[in-house]
Every structure is written in C-alpha cells, then in structure tokens.
Specification:
alpha+beta; four-stranded antiparallel beta sheet; globular
C-alpha cells in the first residue's frame, strides 16, 4: 500500500539512490558515461558509505517541502519543492504509472496554495513533460538548455500551473 508522507533526514540514503537511479535512466540517457557524474552531482555517490558523500546528498535533498512515497516501508518516490516551484519529482521505474507521481503532486499543490502561492513553476525534463501536461501544467516557453550540478546541456521545458483557488 502506497503512503505519502513528509521526508525525514533518515530517508536521505534511500532517496539519494532513488534519485541517482531514476535520473540517470530516464532523464540523462543522452549524457556520455564519462560526463554522467557532472550531471548527477553528489548523487553519483549515492551508494557510498563515506559520511561526506552522505551529508552532501542530504544537503541537496533538503528543501522547503519534501514528500516521499512509500510502498510497504520502501521509498519509491520523492518530490522536492518550495512554495512556488516544483524542484524535482522521481518515481522508481517499477512503480511508474501507478499514480505515485500524481499523488505526490496532489500533496504538494495544496501545500503551496496554503503557503500563499497561486502559480507553480517547474523546469520539466523532456521525459516528464507528458506527465506534467496530464497534471494540468502548461508550457510557458519553448524548450531551453539547462544545467544539472556541473553538467550543461540538459534540455528542459519550463512549465507552470495556476492553482485552483489561487
């Protein structure tokens, strides 16, 4: 059974592995293996036991709002954001198309509205665009070239959604 809850610091290792795996597979497949670490930033060390690596990952995950999806106690999804921006959303590959991303966004949007935001923006990777369109987000400009940590050349689609009641 899927449960959506607030992120806790003790989730960092699991969330870090989830982000490293899903980001690499679905969003960074265009990146040559020799440059993948540049785009992954600290998540390239997601399986490291080194305390400095673990602390760097936990630091990147921290955001005003972080929600995780659990399936029988195992983290299978994460959403990070703040009042007016959805920073990232990842769902483990074997849990795609089970409504987890939708449920994470459904938890996030009302919290944004409660905090006074009327519009949410997201720089969606091209893989994520169909999902965000289905969630009511609209393209706000054409595709742009963005960056991820020290990697440049990440294609992103700026999108926005006006919240109901806002």
């Amino acid at each position: 059974m899927i449960k959506i809850r607030d992120y806790q610091e003790g989730d960092a290792a699991s969330v870090g592995r989830l982000i490293a795996d899903t980001y690499s597979e679905f969003n960074l497949s265009f990146v040559p293996p020799t440059q993948l670490g540049l785009f992954l930033g600290p998540f390239r060390h997601a399986r490291s036991e080194d305390l400095s690596h673990q602390q760097a990952i936990a630091g990147v995950i921290r955001s005003a709002m972080v929600f995780v999806a659990e399936d029988d106690g195992e983290i299978v999804g994460v959403l990070r954001g703040r009042q007016d921006r959805l920073a990232s959303l990842f769902v483990r590959a074997d849990h795609h198309r089970h409504g987890i991303g939708r449920r994470l966004v459904a938890r996030f949007e009302p919290e944004c509205l409660r905090r006074g935001s009327t519009v949410i923006r997201v720089a969606a990777t091209l893989y994520g665009v169909p999902f965000y369109l289905a969630m009511g987000y609209k393209r706000s400009t054409g595709v742009r070239t963005g960056w991820s940590f020290d990697g440049n050349g990440l294609p992103v689609q700026p999108m926005r959604k006006k919240l109901q009641g806002g």
